[in-house]
Design brief:
globular, eight-stranded mixed β-sheet, single chain, alpha/beta, 2 domains, Rossmann fold, 8 strands, 11 helices
């Protein structure tokens, strides 16, 4: 069910599915609520999943400049609109950063965190991008959009393109996700959204010293070969959180939910079973 949610006159496009305890699902950059389908299609069988397009992304586009802090105001307005007194927040990449910010600023509203490929002091070891990288990525992306998961394209262009830093398992199922979700996310991410993120990162974002304040249960999942937000930075965050379980998956990178979806969903299910208090009223 797709809806429009308003807060301070700015509309967020939202996909809400299922019934039960709310799980707020926050995408990365570039991304949209659709990008979280790998999680929401599974979790909505037992819970109410709420997956917004963040301000400046997807169908929540804007040409007006804004700051990263505005995302938090939008999300609190969304929770108020849906009368979510407490929620689990599942955040991927940028979504994980926003999830931690919400837990720091509004701890009474957050019952648990599931953090994927993210960090409170994110750093990258992505190599410099060449003209050839861009050409090969354009070819791989276009062909994959036309014929998703084609082995010839994966071998000829995909493994030589910038996809090699986003994924490690070059399998057809992963390329189907890239065709269905990644292209749309890239094309619908606005310049104001990119500017807001880069400005925040340029100021040296670091919330590690504050993480001891987050007392709710946390699950962190990361890819060992992540070049965008390194596994080392994710581990630093996990070790600074007082009540955190974490797992690092070999031969995966930043898009690990599209590389090993079943493994991640099984791990999330086990964590939810081990911490039933995150999905029930106090």
């Amino acid at each position: 069910m797709a809806e429009l949610a308003s807060h301070q006159s700015f509309p967020l496009y939202v996909t809400r599915s299922g019934q039960g305890w709310p799980i707020l699902c926050l995408h990365g950059h570039p991304g949209t609520g659709r990008s979280m389908g790998v999680f929401t299609e599974h979790l909505s069988q037992r819970f109410c999943t709420i997956a917004p397009d963040l301000r400046g992304y997807g169908r929540s586009r804007t040409s007006q400049r804004f700051q990263m802090e505005d995302h938090l105001a939008d999300l609190m307005g969304l929770l108020d609109q849906y009368q979510c007194d407490r929620t689990v927040i599942l955040g991927w990449s940028l979504g994980g950063i926003l999830a931690m910010e919400l837990a720091l600023q509004y701890p009474e509203r957050v019952s648990g965190l599931i953090l994927v490929a993210t960090a409170a002091r994110p750093w990258s070891d992505h190599p410099n991008i060449s003209l050839l990288d861009n050409v090969l990525t354009g070819a791989a992306g276009l062909i994959n959009w036309i014929k998703p998961g084609w082995e010839w394209n994966i071998e000829t262009f995909g493994k030589r393109s910038l996809f090699r830093y986003l994924i490690q398992r070059h399998q057809p199922t992963t390329y189907h996700y890239l065709a269905r979700e990644a292209v749309y996310a890239y094309l619908t991410t606005s310049q104001p959204a990119t500017r807001a993120l880069y400005q925040a990162m340029g100021r040296g974002y670091n919330r590690v010293p504050d993480l001891a304040k987050i007392q709710c249960p946390v699950l962190m999942l990361m890819g060992e070969q992540d070049r965008h937000i390194t596994a080392a930075s994710s581990r630093e965050t996990a070790k600074a959180l007082p009540n955190c379980e974490w797992e690092c998956y070999d031969q995966t990178a930043h898009l690990l939910p599209w590389e090993i979806p079943k493994g991640l969903l099984d791990r999330i299910d086990r964590w939810l079973a081990d911490y039933p208090e995150v999905t029930r009223l106090k």
